[in-house]
Amino acid sequence: MNPDEVRRQLDAVRADDLPTHGGRTLAYVYDSGLAEADALGREALAAFGGTNGLDPTAFPSLLRMEQDLVGMAADLLDGPPGTVGSVTSGGTESLLLAVQTARDARPDVSRPTLVMPSSAHASFHKAAHYFGVRPVLVDVDPQTGRAVASAMADAIDADTVLVVASAPSYPHGVVDPVTEIATHAQAAGVRCHVDACIGGWLLPFLRRDDPELPAFSFLVPGVTSISVDLHKYGYTPKGVSLLLHRSAQLRRPQLFASAAWPGYTMLNTTTQSTRSGGPIAAAWAITRLIGDDGYLALARQVRDGLTSLVDAVQARPHLRVVGRPSSSLVALASDDAFDIFTVADELLARGWYVQPQLSFGPFPPTLHLSVSAATVPRLPEFLDALDAAVAAAVAAGPTTADPGLAGVLAELDPTTLDDAGFDQLLAMAGLVDGSGTPTLPTRMAPVNATLDVAPPSLREALLLGYLDRISRPVRAADRG
């Protein structure tokens, strides 16, 4: 192909993607609405895309920019002298490293456990799976969605290597009682990690206007590490996160070296070895362009937008806000008049993406909304679309799974299924066609209604089966 043909194909394959700018995508992307920042970020990505963070002696510019980003975050998160950190590829890698570091810091514990609220991000489950750490889940308050500090304390024992709190939690946007949780962890001699991937670049600015907001940073003595994503409310391109430790001694087990082969000595601060310098440079450039005053203004814009959104939803029939959101995330639930998953489909048909969340424990199915600065000026448009979507959902009536299928799913053991059984279930869920070929449904409400009546373990198995099938390449040999 010539370059123009490639560009046309790039445009074509992207046609069905969600928009990354304009404030209409309320999950996955975070948009400052600042065109100059976006342009500068793209320039930095291109200029440093071929550099490699593997070896700081080869690309000292990246080392310098990483040090600057960590220093900026340490100042923002009240890090004491000696605070250190690393740039990672995203929140998941930061949380993986937090768990790995805590595990490796305790070689005396043969069966390490991780104490976490049930609302903590699923990446902690991934970390536990990868690193042989058993997650100990503690129920959150069913009314507020916040972790219960006393219950967290009761779950800590001699095998606990890490205790987790969220600022805020992703499902409901509420900040856990970090001070109480970290105090219990410190008394037990256990590390405490605060997952501030969402709020780490937002809450500190909001606390300047409202010092009564709960503390979550290194101001809390028992907090030993914090994760914060720059590609969320730092408004930088994907993917840049930071993992900060209170001291170099606490970070030491995170670092890896191997000279046990005839090649170069592998030396890493993170899970990755090769790391493109593009996202690092883009984050460095954008944080300097926006600056402290700019982030304060963006944080206030998000806070005011969230407040107006919550007030507007609470004044409407049929919808309610789950919990009391603390920063920028909100979860919406419905009454029995309609199906919340249908609202998501209807909003998407009107150009707005919100993220369906399935029921879990005492919490009903909800719609997750991440409010970014670019969304706030368009909230009146969104509320009009929401009203129309709710009206359409009420007219359509509830979307429910077949009662017979729900009974089968409740009793089914996913470990007993072969490929043929999975294909049959995926077809019943609307995720593959009759030949077993994966399909992307145009409306997800029936799929989500089916998944919602399945136990979490079966949800995982069904979606893993779907992911396995949809991620297989279609090659000429496969076409016959």
TrEMBL record:
Pfam families: Pyridoxal_deC. Keywords: Lyase, Pyridoxal phosphate. The modification N6-(pyridoxal phosphate)lysine is found at K232. The lineage of its organism: Bacteria, Bacillati, Actinomycetota, Actinomycetes, Propionibacteriales. This is Glutamate or tyrosine decarboxylase. The keyword Protein transport does not apply. It comes from the Bacteria. Belongs to the group II decarboxylase family. Sphingosine-1-phosphate lyase subfamily. SUPFAM superfamilies: PLP-dependent transferases. Its cofactor is pyridoxal 5'-phosphate. GO terms for molecular function: aromatic-L-amino-acid decarboxylase activity; pyridoxal phosphate binding. InterPro entries: GrpII_AminoAcid_Decarb (IPR050477), PyrdxlP-dep_de-COase (IPR002129), PyrdxlP-dep_Trfase (IPR015424), PyrdxlP-dep_Trfase_major (IPR015421), PyrdxlP-dep_Trfase_small (IPR015422). One of its GO terms (biological process) is carboxylic acid metabolic process.
